[in-house]
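Inputs:
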Amino acid sequence: MKIRVFVTLKPGVLDPQGAAIKHSLGALGFDGIGDVRQGKVIEIDLAETDPDKARTQASQMCDKLLANTVIENYSLEILS
Amino acid sequence: MKIRVFVTLKPGVLDPQGAAIKHSLGALGFDGIGDVRQGKVIEIDLAETDPDKARTQASQMCDKLLANTVIENYSLEILS
């Protein structure tokens, strides 16, 4: 079972990477760019075949390693 | 209009971050971890309201700035 984890900064937390991207897009001539936020996406192949168990396992991975839950949110998506 | 851009390494390109995550998950006691790949997700607020035009614009942004198309793939998702 393949699971996709999104890790994004919480709203209100400063995102210098997003700000740099916004600035660079403007410099390249793109107009109408509003807020830009950058996050991480992690795709994990799990041996677990039950979607609920896979979700629980991925959630534990996020709490323990993948996300800094003080400043980051995460969300999960089962791919297959 | 909000658009989400995924930038991931092409299959076959070495992913040291993914390998480090896989190793760390194993060290934390998680079993049955297969391949792990890490990528970037970028959420952009665009003034453009037409989905097709927004997609075209985002695609140009990826080609020019957001992705290194020699080693990375990108995909787009319209959020709202």
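The domain at 2-78 of chain A is CATH 3.30.1280.10 (Mth169; Chain: A ,). Flag for discussion at group meeting.
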